[in-house]
Automatic annotation (TrEMBL), chains A, B:
<dbReference type="Pfam" id="PF13280">
    <property type="entry name" value="WYL"/>
</dbReference>
<dbReference type="InterPro" id="IPR001034">
    <property type="entry name" value="DeoR_HTH"/>
</dbReference>
<dbReference type="InterPro" id="IPR051534">
    <property type="entry name" value="CBASS_pafABC_assoc_protein"/>
</dbReference>
<protein>
    <submittedName>
        <fullName>YafY family protein</fullName>
    </submittedName>
</protein>
<dbReference type="InterPro" id="IPR036388">
    <property type="entry name" value="WH-like_DNA-bd_sf"/>
</dbReference>
<dbReference type="Pfam" id="PF25583">
    <property type="entry name" value="WCX"/>
</dbReference>
<feature type="domain" description="HTH deoR-type">
    <location>
        <begin position="4"/>
        <end position="59"/>
    </location>
</feature>
<dbReference type="InterPro" id="IPR028349">
    <property type="entry name" value="PafC-like"/>
</dbReference>
<dbReference type="InterPro" id="IPR057727">
    <property type="entry name" value="WCX_dom"/>
</dbReference>
<dbReference type="InterPro" id="IPR013196">
    <property type="entry name" value="HTH_11"/>
</dbReference>
<dbReference type="InterPro" id="IPR018356">
    <property type="entry name" value="Tscrpt_reg_HTH_DeoR_CS"/>
</dbReference>
<keyword id="KW-0805">Transcription regulation</keyword>
<dbReference type="InterPro" id="IPR036390">
    <property type="entry name" value="WH_DNA-bd_sf"/>
</dbReference>
<keyword id="KW-0804">Transcription</keyword>
<keyword id="KW-0238">DNA-binding</keyword>
<dbReference type="Pfam" id="PF08279">
    <property type="entry name" value="HTH_11"/>
</dbReference>
<dbReference type="InterPro" id="IPR026881">
    <property type="entry name" value="WYL_dom"/>
</dbReference>
Amino acid sequence: MANTSSRTLRLLSLLQTHRYWPGPELSERLGVSPRTLRRDVDRLRELGYPVVAHRGVDGGYQLAPGAALPPLVVDDEEAVALAIGLRMAAQGTVAGIEESAVRALTKVVQVMPPRLRRRIDALRSVTVPAAWGAGPTIDADVLTAVAQACRDEERLRFSYRARDGELTARHVEPHRLVSLGRRWYLVAYDLTRHAWRSFRLDRLADPGSTGERFRPRDLPAEDAAAFVRQGINTMPAAYDVEVLVHAPAARVRAAVSRWGTVEEVGEDRCRLLMTVDGLEWPAMLLGAVGADFEIVGPPELTAFVREWGARFLRVTGGAAGV
Amino acid sequence: MANTSSRTLRLLSLLQTHRYWPGPELSERLGVSPRTLRRDVDRLRELGYPVVAHRGVDGGYQLAPGAALPPLVVDDEEAVALAIGLRMAAQGTVAGIEESAVRALTKVVQVMPPRLRRRIDALRSVTVPAAWGAGPTIDADVLTAVAQACRDEERLRFSYRARDGELTARHVEPHRLVSLGRRWYLVAYDLTRHAWRSFRLDRLADPGSTGERFRPRDLPAEDAAAFVRQGINTMPAAYDVEVLVHAPAARVRAAVSRWGTVEEVGEDRCRLLMTVDGLEWPAMLLGAVGADFEIVGPPELTAFVREWGARFLRVTGGAAGV
DNA sequence: GTCATTGAGGTCAAGAACTGGCCGCTAAGG
DNA sequence: CCTTAGCGGCCAGTTCTTGACCTCAATGAC
């Protein structure tokens, strides 16, 4: 407890929670002489974590950005926030960071005390799925359990709901997680079928690590993502939406925010471009903008919006009967 | 570099990135004898981070959940994911964790190498606001800068857009950040007006820490959140939505997900309850469900939906001309 | 300008901690 | 039965750490 390593860690922690620390206070907190504190600070600097110091009355130490990120010392609440934030990031509203979010999440979850896990579970019910209509939400527990099995090269058992709805028990050697178009896939070697398969994580339940470790096999594909793509014929239908809106570009842009691009066409007219998986979003945005518009494409959107219009008018007792 | 503390940190890092580590490999990576490795592991255990070990062929060490969270050693990509996830968490879709998310975010951002900040900035443009129509998105930079100033008790300068749109330069002693109903407020002592004020973060721009530190004053209120509540008369209009949907509860629930509650009313009928800030959401959900419905309240929703219906039908060339 | 405060860093000697061998032991799996 | 791997005691040599004392350099207040 009175180690040097322990003190280094505590110093790191103190420097992370509060920016400025007067030297005397630090040395007192750590229970060492000021001279030793200076040496500890030097040690941190040698480790690559720059500590800048200010002299004179009211001076003190502070941790500055360095070449590498120092170990993060977080308290319980921060850990919970971290886990939840990472889960949202993993669910994929921001392209390209899902994989690393899951890696980080796995790290955190693995060492998280049970009491914190319970708090996260309690908060889960409050959480909303990341993006509406963008595919099924997957259980964070499933995600982390599978990620951990991949990372640690442990065989995995789970039940899988095939396309026809049939439930089967699986026993696999997990290879890699792939995030593709808002869906998570597990690439694994199926031990009962003796073949490589990819599994959709949202159809996977009750993952349980068996504890058996294995030596990774070679995947018969260039890369895990490529393998998944091979197996997927039915990519989620993507629509390229183009709409002429009879409103100033600024106004549309404010409503659309970052969901799509808005080009100015005229004084009071602009072109809205979006690429979406479902048509609910564009319909909602067009409603929210509150201006007239002309749908350039796709035709499905026209039909979709017309159906909404007819129904909305009908049920609210407006004109345009059935 | 060849320190004991350094080795402890590296060991911690290794144990976090991969679950099982055979002892020999660890000792080789750390450049010490197996005997010393055992002692290092003991050290970690004494620090409160349980390392469980497995004997026998194929044994190894692994980091287990303990009483406290060990310092997290994350790589660059994970740090980026972390920052982005925390930002989403701070923007507030999950109740109650915003404050700790900001605290954690501040910690991370403070020590993050510039190259990572640039990557986050690059990704920001791709990010979507957490919840649509739920209030203005605030800049993450503003949020962290202000949070840091609060934490470090440093005076802060910024420009503030008052309710009437006028821009003023402010100089304050920041006290605390409060997240209230999807909005962030800064409670601070205004140095020019010599009075406590609360500022909406979305109206605050160009925060710059002056570097001057100050001794915290006593806030003339029970608590910062209470102080903000005192000053806010105009709470964001909240609607309690109630709709009878002519569809099975299960189907509606699937569409609504966790945005609201769905009660079964009959075989083919259910009641949808939501509390929302804006009416776009319920309108969209009702559209997406694809069934008829009766709006019980509020009346604004009826008008809102009717307007959408009329416009949608008109612009798509359906019936019900202007 | 003077002065107190605070960080930087050299040196030293005593003491503590660390290290790498060596040992025998237990546990797990082939 | 044998191998591998973790556990921990012991020991001797080495290294590191610590606090004390010192001088110097910034810095801000008076």
